[in-house]
From TrEMBL:
Belongs to the MnmG family. TrmFO subfamily. Residues 5-374 form the MnmG N-terminal domain. GO terms for molecular function: flavin adenine dinucleotide binding; tRNA (uracil(54)-C5)-methyltransferase activity, 5,10-methylenetetrahydrofolate-dependent. Its cofactor is FAD. This is Methylenetetrahydrofolate--tRNA-(uracil-5-)-methyltransferase TrmFO. The keyword Cytoplasm applies. It holds the Pfam family GIDA. The gene is trmFO. It is found in: Cytoplasm. Its EC number is 2.1.1.74. It catalyses: uridine(54) in tRNA + (6R)-5,10-methylene-5,6,7,8-tetrahydrofolate + NADPH + H(+) = 5-methyluridine(54) in tRNA + (6S)-5,6,7,8-tetrahydrofolate + NADP(+); uridine(54) in tRNA + (6R)-5,10-methylene-5,6,7,8-tetrahydrofolate + NADH + H(+) = 5-methyluridine(54) in tRNA + (6S)-5,6,7,8-tetrahydrofolate + NAD(+). The keyword Ribosomal protein does not apply. Keywords: Cytoplasm, FAD, Flavoprotein, Methyltransferase, NAD, NADP, Transferase, tRNA processing. It comes from Pseudooceanicola spongiae.
Length: 452
């Protein structure tokens, strides 16, 4: 191929799109504004940097939709999943990764690919010619955001994400905290002890709730309005919904036994997950927050076991950007008004690292096929990737469109299976069996891609 594919944004989606297109023999240019143009959440100039959690969530490909998405991306030779597997950390049944080595490895692999080049600098206008993918993710720059708004006529593109704090492991009191995955989940002892747990009795919980609700919160900038994505709510926003909300959410005590006091059932439990391979950093699971920094330290040190906690990073809020894909994109993920431009990643209205990378995988393959003079049909909607792309390009209600994680509710039902909780295990297995067969068939039907 002589025509180049240009990708704006080197996050999860842009990195995966570049890899897939280059593996198909298509020359690629990644345009990345970092590190010359910084963002609130990024710390480095690496590609595929993880800015929030270090978890890719469940890795169960038989009973979980995101685990199925992992399976499909591995089957497609995805760089994000392959690199995550090489840098995985113990996390029970989840796939957590050592974030800095992960992004460094993705960067090195892409920059060493003979068909991929990286150009640094901000792009603020929509290109009129050539083949482009916009994969700028949740932190699309103001300039490019304005250009997208002008083209699409969209009044608002933003909502807000919140990031959780990270604690130094050696500052946690292990006479109070203990190591255990919920329900001892995991095949190895390391997996079964992947989470660090801090117990609360009723008085601890009530005092923590009072402090959380009264703490100073960061205000939005003038003229900055947006809603929150329900899957990433700040902990204080959850608390405002009712005093028991956290105890039935990220602080639920079920499936855990305090090894220091086995007879005492905690009223609530705060979990921390390892954030790096050395085990020196732990992030507080589900504790995204918009509290001001001073308040965060005071409130989080009320958690038993974290009284002397030192924070490697405190939490914060950042703007997230997405378009109304059901009205703006066609089935090839192209902007209807400018079909030389595709969108991929979180900006399309999917939520999560894996979902973002998955949309990059499809966009990269579709763009490479188009440049080669053929059309790649979307994958079947019964697959995880197919269900996601079907949702964002027409399956969702445009009037109420909001960012969506992959879930079995997006899949066409399997005939003859029971609905409800009792039949869930068999139903989910039927979903994943069907998806794997169809996904492999979709891959096999494509022309062979170039080797490394």
């Amino acid at each position: 191929m002589t025509q180049k594919l240009h990708i704006i944004g080197g996050g999860m989606a842009g990195s995966e799109a570049a890899w897939q297109a280059a593996q198909a023999g298509c020359p690629v240019v990644i345009h990345e504004m970092r590190p010359s143009v910084e963002t609130f959440a990024h710390r480095t100039g690496n590609l595929a940097e993880m800015v929030c959690s270090n978890s890719f969530r469940s890795d169960d490909s038989e009973q979980n939709a995101v685990g199925l998405l992992h399976w499909e991306m591995r089957a497609a030779g995805g760089i994000i999943m392959a690199t995550a597997d090489r840098h995985r950390l113990p996390a029970g049944g989840a796939l957590a990764v050592d974030r800095d080595p992960f992004s460094a490895a993705v960067t090195e692999t892409l920059m060493n690919h003979p068909l991929i080049e990286v150009e640094y600098g901000e792009i603020t206008e929509l290109p009129n010619e050539g083949h482009w993918i916009i994969a700028t993710g949740p932190l699309t720059s103001e300039g490019l955001g304005r250009a997208i708004q002008a083209e699409t006529g969209t009044e608002a593109l933003a909502f807000f994400d919140a990031i959780a704090p990270i604690v130094y492991a050696d500052s946690i009191n292990m006479d109070v905290a203990w190591m255990q995955s919920r329900y001892d989940k995991g095949e190895t002892e390391e997996e079964q002890r992947a989470y660090l747990n801090c117990p609360m009795d009723k008085d601890d919980y009530e005092g923590f709730m009072d402090a959380l609700l009264e703490a100073d919160k960061a205000a939005f900038h003038e003229g900055e309005t947006a809603g929150y994505f329900d899957g990433c709510l700040p902990i204080e926003v959850m608390a405002e919904r009712g005093r028991e909300t956290l105890r039935h959410g990220p602080m639920k005590p079920v499936g855990l036994t305090n090894s220091h006091k086995p007879q005492d059932k905690p009223y609530a439990v705060v979990q921390l997950r390892r954030d790096n391979a050395l085990g020196t950093l732990y992030n507080i699971v589900g504790f995204q927050t918009k509290m001001k920094y001073g308040s965060q330290a005071d409130v989080f040190r009320m958690i038993p076991g974290l009284e002397e906690a030192r924070f490697a990073r405190l939490g914060g809020i950042h703007r997230n950007t997405f378009i109304n894909s059901p009205t703006l994109l066609d089935g090839q993920m192209r902007l209807r008004s400018r079909p030389n431009i595709r969108f991929a990643g979180q900006i399309t209205g999917v939520e999560g690292y894996v979902e973002s990378a998955a949309m990059g995988l499809l966009a990269g393959r579709m763009a490479a096929a188009e440049i080669a003079g053929r059309e790649l049909l979307p994958p079947p909607p019964e697959t995880a990737l197919g269900a996601l792309v079907t949702h964002i390009t027409g399956g969702a209600d445009a009037k109420t469109f909001q960012p969506m994680n992959v879930n079995f509710g997006l899949f066409p039902p399997v005939d003859g299976l029971k609905s409800g909780r009792r039949g869930r295990k068999d139903r989910y297995k039927a979903y994943t069996d069907r998806a794997k067969e169809l996904w492999q068939g979709w891959l096999d039907a494509q022309e062979p891609v170039a080797a490394d």
